[in-house]
């Protein structure tokens, strides 16, 4: 290793380094603690604040990660990991400042002699009799036996190989699980191959190192520990950090989440649904795995610190001397102690009768029996074979063919069919005629149970086959620019077959006779499907029993449909949000504004002249009413409770851009008029009072920006992404 200083005899206990090399490794180990501790601290802060953000609402809706009730535990665990790494870094920096040289701790390093020898030396000091000194000596003794470099957990302890193998076995198992999950969730082949390369190299490292370095036991241990440190670092923070960095540009810090339109992008949303499984804590076992990697880093770096030793550049020798730490003795006792020390050191340096295993590569390990050396040799062979198996699984997965209908293809291990989590059936580009047999043939080319998002585009007479029931993990289905010829009950989306389904979008879709297909109205409706959006469709009627099939509290949008009124069955669904933007609705019933749990109401670009006068029980949950591009010019007094409860809100509750009301309000604000066309008489809202005293209330309540005069569904984005090129 570059920078090492040569001594008269190779050390079996230390890796001797020149001052420059020692400083280099000091800064590397400090950086490991700072990076890992900083990541854990940031992760703890992230989970501490997550539950109150828009990001959490979208993640919870998409079923990604653990629920808010579990966040305190995740926060505490990561804070503990951060404090442990911070403590290690503090010991390095504090010890170096205290001793005015680069060291790894406040405690002076051991010089290689048995710690029990130093205890014997100190035992001769009959002047040390106080209880404080006795406790100090006892604590030091316990520390040396457990954490000292020759202690139970020490790098030169008798249990080093057993502990290292146990740790490697656990970590390699968890790293293999992580590599397997990456093969399912990450379509980034370069990142998958990089991590697999590290995993396989770590499995093979012991075999290579013990074959190449022969008898230099200190360097064997050093390189094994470095290999462990690298894979632990990448496992604990490397993979999540790489994924997160790719989404930083999309994050809106003011919104504390991602803009809504991103979630309508098939590729982006499908990536997030999968890749965030590798970033967020998704289970208790996942949290334990991350903790093991973080603690493994501390254990590995601690052993590395015990191995490294700085020696002068000019070849000065490092001698073992117990007198360095001994107290002043009278001459007779001092000579007696020195004699005992020399005897002990001599015994420890006597060559052991070791059995050669693996061409002598295991004779310097400190293992004294054939059984122990054979077990170590066998363990290294097992790890090497493990690496071969993992590499074979990856190669088998990599040779799966690429399919045009798999827009985002993953390569999970040990599967017989290609897997993709974004499947796009583009009838035009695939050159199929939309018949059941052809659709079925294209879907049968990949494993349908792996698909997260299913999109169907540019089909002129789509017949949906029964095999749609095989999309068990699918969270969303989108039809774009297509005509549905047949989607019968036998091919219906059901809770039995689609338990993960959370959204269903029809965009620029033509339906037979303007009616909803039987395939989306099963009595076994998916219990998580709360988002149904129909934008630019020819829907002109809905069944009266829809409230017995669709979920109560759902979000329902019929934007730019052919509905001439808002069906009462939709109101009986007690929706959370409704939109009839752009539909030819000329009149609104009072019941529309009395839905108990309705929060968002989008009624822009519909040909109404005014609002109903006799709303008696305005929805207490109503927060936002969109009346953009309408002829509404005044409000009745029933709207005042909404005005009053939202005065302290940061956003205006009435979105009126392009309406007659806003046209009159703009004239008033410009000084061209002093009143609305409808005077503030009894029965009318306070929003009709244009006086200076009431002007702030009016301006806070009504937002006249034209940017809100668009459908909820981002149709422009969809057309850019999905339209025929």
From TrEMBL:
**Name the record gives this protein:** Uncharacterized protein
Cited InterPro entries: LRR_dom_sf
Q: Which UniProt keywords apply?
A: Membrane, Transmembrane, Transmembrane helix
Q: Where are the transmembrane segments?
A: 24-48, 76-98, 194-213, 375-395
